[in-house]
Amino acid sequence: MEGFSRLMLSKLSIDELVPLVQADPSDTSRPMNELISRFTDRAKKIAVNVCRNYGDRDDVMNAALLVIVSAVRTYRPDSTKTGFSAYGAVSMLHAARRESQILAAQRTIANAIGAVEKTEAKRLEEDAEVVEREALPFGWLTDAVVHLPKAERDVLNLTEAGYKGREIAIALGVQAPAVSKRLASAHRMIRDYAEAAA
Length: 198
Prior knowledge:
This protein has helices at residues 6-11, 14-23, 30-50, 57-74, 84-132, 140-146, 150-160, 165-172, 176-197. By secondary structure, it is mainly alpha-helical.
């Protein structure tokens, strides 16, 4: 396979390149490199269309290009009515969507953790203001939140950080109704704690 020059490979169509790539088990062969270079512009366009976060576009594009290696191995021209161009493009689109969702979920979780830390610092400041007014004993709000079960505390922190119910559900891996129930339960427990502290 290495006997092909770049010039010879550049004159072949994508459907003519596929059998050459399938015949060579190496993923770094010249025909494979030529095939990937032909899909690079399409991968960039897919990444721009699929990924909203500019910083993730390179990762999404690379995931789309990597799927070409496995797609060319599984492609059978007799089993599809379209050529490899369409087959590869659809495979890249699915891989790009999957990668974009994974990256968005990771970013949501990281943002959620940061928001929880900021909210707890803010709560300590608010607690100090209440003590200055001598309405309740020092630390009552922090104590109330600390005594909440972890599930309720996480939902409360994310809500106070400005996240919506659906976003919280995704970040915590639960259903949206569970978020509503946990929030109501947290508010009820804090009210009960405040009444006991007063």
